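hiii, so i know i said id send this last week but things got crazy w the move. better late than never?? heres the sequnce for the chain we talked about at the cafe, plus the structure i predicted for it. fair warning i was half asleep when i ran it
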Amino acid sequence: MKYTVESDIGRKRKVNEDRVAFFERPDHLKLAILADGMGGHNAGDVASEMAIKEMEKSFLQIKAEDINSSEAKKRWLYEVISELNTKIYNHSLSHESCKGMGSTLIAVLIDGNNCFIAHIGDSRVYYFTPEAVTLVTRDHSFVNILVDYGEISEEEAENHPQKNFIVKSLGTESTIEPDFYELMLENPSYVLICSDGLSNKLSTDEMAAILTLPMSLKEKGKKLVQLANESGGEDNISVILLSLGDEEV
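okay and structure toks below
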């Protein structure tokens, strides 16, 4: 598996509150993390930085035999995210400058061709194969609640003025319940993990078109960010792009 990581402040923000990281252990277990901090002047970057650091520490310490099944992976992710949520929440209560801070979170635990995903907020995971593009995660957003109740369509949700109003984030409540997903990766395929600074600006067709360009994986990651900036760049833009197989998808 190849990977590339990109994060850009965008064209309108003064601070990059996104944090992204990819960790690989000697036993080849991997962890990709994307956290989009929120709170503006109230230290969203503190929340996202805490998310990366705490998950890295736990990932490097966990024994491989303790996460050797889907159920064990889910349990570990749930436990570490619950602890992390408590730390961020307590930090926001005890530091006035951090009051109300929080973060989205995508954590992808990669074991061979298996990806086990934990998700909070409106950062996204897309999966690209030669046959299809799949949005794996479902935003924890106000508009998706409206979709669930049949008040608007999926298409209307994509362009709704309150699309970015999320109803679940890391560290803003005393407890958290992530969503979990599992992917078995085909060869060839791509996994795209991104903040809403990318997904709000590029359609899946535009993403797929970039992934088929004759360039390196790193160049594709940079091209995705470039196109989001050219489309306005109002938000921070972060990408983790994973590729399985040497062929182009």
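btw The radius of gyration is 17 Å. thought thatd interest u
miss u guys!!
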